[in-house]
Amino acid sequence: MTAELVRGQNHPLPHTCLEIRVSAGHPVLAAAALGDEEGRVAGPEAVAHPGSAALPGVEVPRQAATAHRLAVDLEAVRDTVHRVSVLLALPLGTGGPTRFGASAAPVVTVTGPDGTAVADYTITGLDRESALVALELYRRQGAWKVRAVGQGYEGGLAALLADQGLDRPAELAGSALDAVAQGLARSVAAPPSRVPDADRLPDGEHAHQAAPGPAQPPVPPATPPRAQTPAQPPVPAQAPAQPPVPPAPPAAGGPIDYTHPSRRPAPAPAPRPAGGPQGPGQEAASAPEGFPAPVAGDAAGWSMDERLYNQVWGMFEDLARATAAYRSACRFAENRLDQELDRVLSDPRSRIGGAGDAARAAAKAKHDELTARAQEVLDRDLAQLAAESEVVEPALPAAYARWDSPVWQAYRVPMEPPMAVRLGDLHLPERTDLRIPFLARLPLARGLWVDSGRGQSAAAGLLDEAELRRLALDSAVAHVARLLAVHPAGSFRVRVIDAAGAGAAAFAPLVGAGVLAGPPAAGAAGVSAVLTQLTERVDLLQMAARAGADEDLPPGLDTAEELLVVHDFPHGFDDRAVNQLRYLADEGPAVGTQLLMVADRADAAAYGPVLDPLWRSLMRLTPVPDDHLADPWVGHAWTYEPPSFPAGSAVLRQVLGQLTDARGQWGPGSR
């Protein structure tokens, strides 16, 4: 269960590979200082900051953003390091807030390698501080712990670094702040195009975020040629999720390589027979002029499933980087125009007359030139990504494909689960028709929340409440059907709580096909029975996992993965049921019990802040397109589009028919 820390409190760390997630109400830069046993920092070389983002065992983002992910491997830090302090500072001089007290309190979360939160710390009580030590990871008697610090500094990052024992702290603070400012004002030249056989690598939330990338987000175009390297082995499911690595600052006057850094070359695919149809690994005929023809499956991996997964997330990162570069270039052009106009207006002699008009015209012409150049680069990159999307989308397997894909017409129940599942699509306003599949790794590390409320979405606010709830439930059924469809028969069970019975029509196809573990639970008694059974099951599985005694589980206990779908929350829930639901959301994913809620947060307002940790633990999805998925790395708000069945399509009936046949062959025990 997640520990919610207060200032000064500590908590043991069960893992040494960690991710530290930062969420703030305004853009902040993140840094990390590595100290000895007494907390002294040896020098600038022991501080990871946007200008020098990576140290042994620690990596921080290179940009300022409202959300960050810092990667920490405590086994990789030097033996002399006994304390890792996480630092946050406002990028002063960019027109943003000058004190932390001007917006919502920052929240710092320490997560394990599987994304499970270990400790949360909301840094309250801030006012005029512009820099702070958020928390520290420290070594004590051979074990690592986390301590909530929350120490703020009105003197900014320089004062904070001075307190860490550094010489010339103002120089180091200036270096970090300059790196952020240069990143915001960077103008990007068009990089060379990708080679067709380049191999590339969120979970996301939102992407992740990340990550959706998140994304990584959450947390994120064209690339320079790279040397061939062999394909890398697959990353184990328990490996820590690494945040995307932002591009290094360019050499003076040189272009930035903002391609996904983990895209690695793979062996070239076999040549396509002349006149043959296109398929995975074959070239497209619609590549933009001057670019190599894109190839489906040109990413690292031992299987086509893994290669396509990595390629899709590489496309996500490329689109994020290309758009971030374009927006930064436009901001730089706007700032440059403002500065030049200010200089003109500050001189009384140039305010009127021909000299002033000429200066203003020259400034405007330069602005237009810079924005036109940025637009040209963006158009090139988006054209290449669009061509790649046209090739990749038809090659996606059922787990990654849209519901209108022809792959579903030949669907058969798989023999093993895929790496990931498609939860919808993502796009950015620069090109709304370029949609990137939103893939989430399986098993789901976080539960899903299909938001049926209107309060958090401008698009949802335009709909009738009843229509919105219907769309939310239809979207949830689409998620459930896909999760069932991509798992082997008998390895994935779905239970439904529909306390008020309002979802009977939507759940009818699932009930009629017999693919649920039982009829939807109704009323308070049904809610209590399902939650009690699941919490006891999670308790047993956790105890067996901790003791390494799976063979001692009670006879007949089914260890298949489970998905609990909750509709009409909190109808039928008492305080005990609410606590059981929170327990399942926190502890269930570790033993294969996942949660999907279809709910309006406002309906549970009577519980107050008691349910805030529950909502935060779930990945919020909307039933209507909405730009709510935040990318903590580059700061984009991705528009999420939910999955839906094509109008008049029989794809749901066909898929459920295959599942029914497979369950019949498997036997009644599959339930």
Task: Determine the N-to-C terminus distance.
Answer: 29 Å
Q: Tell me the helix content.
A: 25-40%
What CATH architecture of the largest domain would you give? 3-Layer(aba) Sandwich
Specify the biggest β-sheet.
Answer: 12 strands, mixed
User: What top-tier CATH class of the largest domain fits best?
Assistant: Alpha Beta
> What class would the helix/strand composition place it in?
alpha+beta
Counted by DSSP, the helix tally is 10
Tally of extended strands? 23
Shape: globular
Provide the CATH topology of the largest domain.
Answer: Rossmann fold
Q: Mean pLDDT, rounded to whole units?
A: 80
- Cα-atom Rg, whole angstroms? 26 Å
Count up the domains: 3
Regions with little confidence, pLDDT below 50 for 5+ residues:
185-285
Structure report:
With 671 residues, this protein is of the alpha+beta class. The protein has 3 domains: 3-184, Lipoxygenase-1; 206-396, no CATH class; 446-660, Rossmann fold, CATH 3.40.50. The chain is built from 10 helices and 23 strands. It has helices at residues 156-163, 169-184, 304-346, 353-395, 465-485, 504-513, 523-547, 575-587, 612-617, 651-666, and strands at 3-5, 10-12, 17-35, 47-48, 54-55, 58-59, 65-73, 83-89, 107-111, 117-122, 131-140, 143-153, 206-207, 209-210, 420-428, 431-441, 448-451, 492-498, 561-567, 593-599, 619-621, 626-630, 637-641. Strand 5 and strand 6 (58-59) form a beta hairpin.
